[in-house]
Each structure stands twice: as structure tokens, then as C-alpha cells.
């Protein structure tokens, strides 16, 4: 098995909710797919699910991720925990009389990850320290999985503080930050280049891509804007012997 086809799995977090974790994960899947790699993503906790005609819960994130995956997982594996309220997972769970537990969430993810693939993503819920119960956060799920982390930075005013705090916490939690992605959420955002330059200087992990605002949300047109962390390793210049 070559390095390119060896299994690589990452936990995808963001500087906040709605910063493009699903969008960037879809883009990474689309890229892996064009490289002929087996890939899929799991969205372990989906809060804010809509309802189908039969009253069943729909995880829009999971549907989007499945659309770009090349490995077709059953819905229960892609989106094992679906909650109707569009709020923090611990509140959404309490609304339906449930209590989430990191070890059980991890069990669901491991079940999904037992499917063979070269590239696997696990999308978090909101940002790194989003509570899943009174004691535990979504970061505890990532920690128990021991996965390297990809940080999606939604480029907007305030993202520098959020990105630097998140990167610091990921490393303090003992997980490697495999890379970060600058996701341009808005077409008319001022000082985009300056903010990205600041992050390049202050974050120790590599930038995996700068994703422009894409009005029609068509990720396929953007596959050259991003790299998987392993691709950066391969693009490093060879050392002289
Ligand atoms: N580069 C972009 N260009 C245009 N629209 C974008 C871009 N990135 C994200 N969006 C849009 O912003 C919205 C939020 O993105 P997304 O759903 O990926 O966020 P998220 O971080 O996954 O949120 P959640 O915390 O709910 O999982 C979506 O409507 C998405 O299509
Ligand atoms: C419902 C939403 N789209 C996310 N899935 C959950 C976001 C939780 C954010 C909690 C918080 O940081 O205050
Ligand atoms: Mg999402």
C-alpha cells in the first residue's frame, strides 16, 4: 500500500458553528474522489435536524457529506445521533430527554470508521469546546479518537482570536493540528489577505487551502484550492544528501 492510499482520518473542527466545516469537508472528499481514493465522512452529532414527510429526522450535513463521499455508508453510520433543536448538542439532547456521553459517541464513530477507506473525516459540532453534556465537550470525542485535527477558519472579523484560541486548545488537549483552512465565507469581506497572512505567521500548522466565497456553493469547482495534509508532505522539496 502506498502512502497515498494508506488510511488517513481527521477530526474537522471550526472556529465556530456555520464557518464551513461541512463545506470544506465536502471539498476534501471531492478532491480525494478525483484522486481515485475511497473516502467518506461521519457527522456524529447532528443538532438542528429537519423532518421528512414521515416525521423522521434529516441531517442536512450528513446528506451533503454523503453526496461527495465515494464510499456509501448507511445513514445510521454517517449520522448516528440526530437531534431536532438547532442549539448546542447538550441542550438539544436535553430537549428530547437524552444525555450524550463522549464514550458512546466515540463508539458510534468507531462503528462507522470500521468501513475500509483511504480518507475519513469526522465533522465536529460547532467549535472545539462545544459542550455535549455538563462535563464533556465535543473535544473529548476527538481526544478519545486520538485523531489529528483540521481547523476550518471562517474568515470574518473575530476569526483571528477564535482561530488562535482553538489551535492553542487543540494542542493543549494533546492532539496534533494537521492543518487549517481559510474559508472565505463572504464575498465582500475586508482585509482577507491580511487576516490570512496573520494566521500563516501565528499558527504552527500548515494552511491546507484558501477557499474563496463560492456563491453557488459548488464545491467541485474548488478542488484545486485545497490539499489533504499528506499532499503537503509530498510537495516538500527533497533534501540534499
Ligand atoms: N466558501 C464558501 N462560499 C460560499 N458559501 C459558503 C462557503 N463556506 C460555507 N458556505 C456556506 O455557509 C453555510 C455554513 O457552512 P457549513 O454548513 O459548512 O458550516 P458548518 O461549520 O459545517 O456548520 P455546523 O456547525 O452547523 O455544522 C452553508 O450555507 C454553506 O454553504
Ligand atoms: C445547530 C448548529 N448548526 C450546530 N450543529 C451546533 C452548534 C452549537 C454551538 C454552541 C455554542 O458554541 O454556543
Ligand atoms: Mg456542518
From TrEMBL:
Reactions catalysed according to its record: (7R,8S)-7,8-diammoniononanoate + CO2 + ATP = (4R,5S)-dethiobiotin + ADP + phosphate + 3 H(+)
Co-factor(s): Mg(2+)
Function of the protein: Catalyzes a mechanistically unusual reaction, the ATP-dependent insertion of CO2 between the N7 and N8 nitrogen atoms of 7,8-diaminopelargonic acid (DAPA, also called 7,8-diammoniononanoate) to form a ureido ring.
PANTHER family membership: DETHIOBIOTIN SYNTHETASE
Subunit (UniProt): Homodimer.
Organism, as annotated: Alkanindiges hydrocarboniclasticus
InterPro entries per UniProt: DTB_synth_BioD (IPR004472), P-loop_NTPase (IPR027417)
Keywords, ordered alphabetically: ATP-binding, Biotin biosynthesis, Cytoplasm, Ligase, Magnesium, Metal-binding, Nucleotide-binding
Binding positions (Mg(2+)): 22, 61, 123
Protein name stated in the entry: ATP-dependent dethiobiotin synthetase BioD
Cell compartment(s), UniProt: Cytoplasm
